[in-house]
Amino acid sequence: MKFDEPSWTGPSRWSRILGEGENPLLWSLPIYRAWGISVRIHVIFVAIILVKMILSIPENTLGPGFVALALIALFVLVLLHEYGHCFACRRVGGEADEILLWPLGGLASCLPPNRWQAHLVTVVGGPAVNLLLVPVLGGAVLAMGGSWDLVVFNPFDFGSAGSEALAGGYGFWFVWSLHATNAVLLGFNVLVPMYPLDGGRILHAVLWGRRGKLAADRISVAVGLVSAVLLGTVGLLTGETLIFGIAIFGGFVCYQEQRRQRFLEEPGADWPIPEVGDDPSGPDDGVEEEEIDAILAKISREGIKSL
């Protein structure tokens, strides 16, 4: 395996961090590159890590050592999850070249072939990694003397199981953190049908195969918006700021996707929409080019505000 070290020299080093500057979601730092995939970490994620480490210093807190191990566990599992997406995408003939780690998880830049089967395989690739790790990490907890209560725990009462795991010392805490974080990531990602979570994308791919691309677009966005409202309500009632933040971001992504769909469906945007059984990656490779041409024509007629 060859790692390409990120370059920090040259006049473009700030553009490597800020991109074009106007989109804060892309402000990130390069970490490494392997298997043709660049791994970056968002600057806000770096800031959150530093803040959490500082807040863990006082004596009445968890302590820097335990907090650092929990953050490492989260980092490793999110990274493995995103690699699952990338390798699955390549397996079906798609492209995947970047992973962005940010405060609410990870984002893999995947471009699978434009057919529902390829999209479904790409999406399932991430949770599949977590699913394979469940018996491995759960077995490791038991092998180190942990009880079944630490393997099968209540995700809404994370603190009780965590307190028991702390008593096992740094090594046991790290292994349990890997298992617990992996289980939560798997369940949360798959069971919540909302963009950009995997559950929303799995729903879209399945609907695409059964009812066609257009119906899948509309239904999955509607379900995602409802899920965002319900998830945000749960976050407020339970006081879980992370859940509330994910709900806000998911709702924003679903809203943006809804706007994109309406834009593409307006008069003048008359490119073909793949339906059930269509395989645009075959004889219809020009679909994406036609979409771009139609968007540019619309901007030419109505101005940039039409977006």
Please characterize this protein's 3D structure.
By secondary structure, the chain is of the alpha+beta class. The chain contains 11 helices and 4 strands. The protein has helices at residues 13-18, 43-55, 64-91, 116-143, 148-151, 158-166, 169-191, 198-211, 213-238, 241-265, 287-302; strands spanning 28-34, 37-42, 95-102, 105-111. Strands 1-2-3-4 form a 4-stranded mixed sheet. β1 and β2 (37-42) form a beta hairpin. Residues 1-11 and 270-287 have low confidence and may be disordered.
* Portion in helices: 55-70%
The class by helix and strand makeup works out as: alpha+beta
Mean pLDDT: 79
Strand content: 5-15%
Strands side by side in the biggest sheet: 1-2-3-4
- Radius of gyration, CA atoms, in whole angstroms: 21 Å
Order of helices and strands: HEEHHEEHHHHHHHH
Shape: globular
Low-confidence stretches: 1-11, 270-287
- Give the distance, in angstroms, between the N- and C-terminal Cα atoms: 43 Å
Sketch the major β-sheet.
4 strands, mixed
What is the number of E strands? Answer: 4
Total number of helical segments?
11
